[in-house]
């Protein structure tokens, strides 16, 4: 029987329960499909919030949306007024809760942001080498990799790099930590390129080409790596493994008793099931039902896009909504019709061209004499509505991401791990900057 830190487990559970309660209370505001709405769906319940949102100038919406604290500061007074009228009280402080404030198991890494943790560029690589070592890696990705390694506890264990791609993360770990790295990736060409990089640098890194979803669940010390690469004497790492991929890592590591785990979760909505399957006992008992659409909420924060990209994004949404209004009229069916992904080049033409393309994609018969300018204006007005629906929903994006992260932390706690969570890089480098560290407790 593993001796779990009951105090820390109680704290994890309490934080999860608080977030779970807030998300259940506020579900009318965040469990919405903005593209399908013709008005603010919760306006009758929250009239002051509705008035405040419509009073906001369109030009300030992106700036508010980019900063969670600014968004909450702007909208929470109106929300509090509506709650008071309804005789309700929500813990709105949870809307801006940071990873640091979670204060989870800080005994693994005394401070996840501490300068005392060995940096990624020391002691086994100098700045001249670094320029060559990071060749062919995009700047922002390289920043993420170096920051992740900088905050990785030096466990002195061989490393399993999960969903490795070309193994950039594993290669830096092998170089700076001097440990054996096994990098798992399902695309053979990426494995070959990654192995060539490792061989060039004479690093103890080797690749196995395997599908993470095809690996058998039972780890065995004598089994082949293709069967299951997880071992007890090992540190498993994953930087931005999406959805079910990082969940699978946690499940395999827990089953194998892997000594150390370090993951930065990403793309929670990329799951095989239609609805989210909780990992921890608390999440399984929650009253929340989360669809893939709901799970995209934590990802909806525009901190990376430059003004040109933002303008194109707004144009695309207005065009999509304009066509949606048009197709409802043409088909005589008042239902949203989703379109496939749009290439940037398709936004350089006219709205009429876009509608012709979209109609062909969905086999919609367009009338001969359509006033496309009128339908585009309808699209722009609907965009003003959807942006405000989304802005209210975004109040809860941090709370939902923390709920999902705590589900993973609680699962690891229940599996006999001591857990810590924090930020491994600035939000400007990537909004998906949570780092979960777990260390197996002694039997």
UniProtKB/TrEMBL annotation:
Domain of life of the source: Bacteria
Q: Which residues form the Methyltransferase domain?
A: 154-273
Q: Which InterPro entries match?
A: Methyltranfer_dom, SAM-dependent_MTases_sf
- Sorted alphabetically, which Pfam families does this protein's record hold? Methyltransf_32 (PF13679)
Q: Name one GO molecular function term.
A: methyltransferase activity
Q: Which UniProt keywords apply?
A: Methyltransferase, Transferase
* GO BP: methylation
Instruction: Note whether Transferase occurs among the keywords.
Output: yes
This chain belongs to the protein called Methyltransferase
Species this chain originates from: Shewanella cutis
């Amino acid at each position: 029987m593993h001796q779990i830190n009951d105090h820390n487990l109680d704290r994890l559970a309490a934080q999860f329960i608080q977030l779970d309660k807030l998300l259940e209370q506020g579900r009318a505001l965040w469990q919405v499909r903005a593209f399908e709405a013709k008005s603010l769906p919760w306006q009758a319940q929250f009239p002051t919030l509705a008035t405040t949102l419509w009073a906001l100038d369109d030009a300030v919406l992106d700036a508010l949306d980019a900063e969670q604290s600014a968004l909450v500061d702007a909208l929470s007074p109106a929300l509090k007024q509506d709650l008071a009228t309804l005789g309700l009280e929500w813990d709105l402080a949870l809307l801006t809760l940071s990873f640091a404030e979670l204060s989870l198991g800080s005994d693994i890494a005394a401070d996840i942001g501490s300068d005392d943790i060995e940096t990624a560029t020391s002691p086994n690589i100098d700045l001249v080498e670094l320029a060559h070592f990071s060749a062919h890696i995009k700047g922002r990705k390289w920043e993420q990799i170096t920051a992740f390694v900088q905050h990785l506890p030096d466990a002195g264990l061989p490393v399993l790099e999960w969903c490795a791609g070309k193994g950039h993360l594993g290669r830096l770990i092998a170089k700076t930590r001097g440990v054996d790295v096994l990098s798992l990736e399902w695309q053979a060409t990426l494995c070959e390129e990654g192995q060539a990089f490792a061989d060039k640098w004479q690093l103890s890194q080797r690749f196995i080409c395997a599908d993470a979803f095809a690996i058998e669940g039972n780890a065995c010390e004598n089994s082949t790596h293709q069967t299951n690469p997880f071992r007890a004497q090992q540190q498993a790492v994953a930087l931005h493994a999406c959805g079910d991929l990082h969940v699978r890592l946690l499940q395999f590591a827990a089953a194998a008793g892997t000594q150390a785990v370090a993951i930065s979760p990403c793309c929670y909505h990329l799951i095989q099931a239609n609805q989210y399957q909780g990992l921890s006992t608390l999440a399984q008992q929650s009253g929340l039902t989360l669809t893939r659409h709901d799970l995209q909420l934590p990802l909806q924060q525009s901190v990376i896009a430059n003004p040109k990209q933002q303008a194109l994004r707004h144009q695309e949404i207005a065009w999509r909504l304009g066509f949606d209004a048009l197709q409802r009229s043409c088909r005589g069916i008042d239902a949203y019709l989703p379109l496939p992904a749009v290439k940037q080049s398709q936004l350089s033409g006219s709205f009429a061209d876009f509608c012709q393309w979209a109609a062909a994609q969905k086999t919609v018969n367009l009338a001969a004499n359509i006033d496309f300018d009128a339908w585009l204006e309808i699209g722009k007005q609907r965009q003003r509505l959807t942006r405000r629906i989304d802005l209210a929903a975004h109040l809860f994006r941090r709370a939902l991401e923390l709920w999902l992260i705590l589900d993973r932390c609680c699962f690891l706690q229940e599996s006999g791990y001591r857990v810590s969570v924090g930020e491994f890089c600035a939000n400007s480098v990537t909004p998906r900057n949570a780092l979960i560290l777990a260390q197996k407790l002694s039997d």
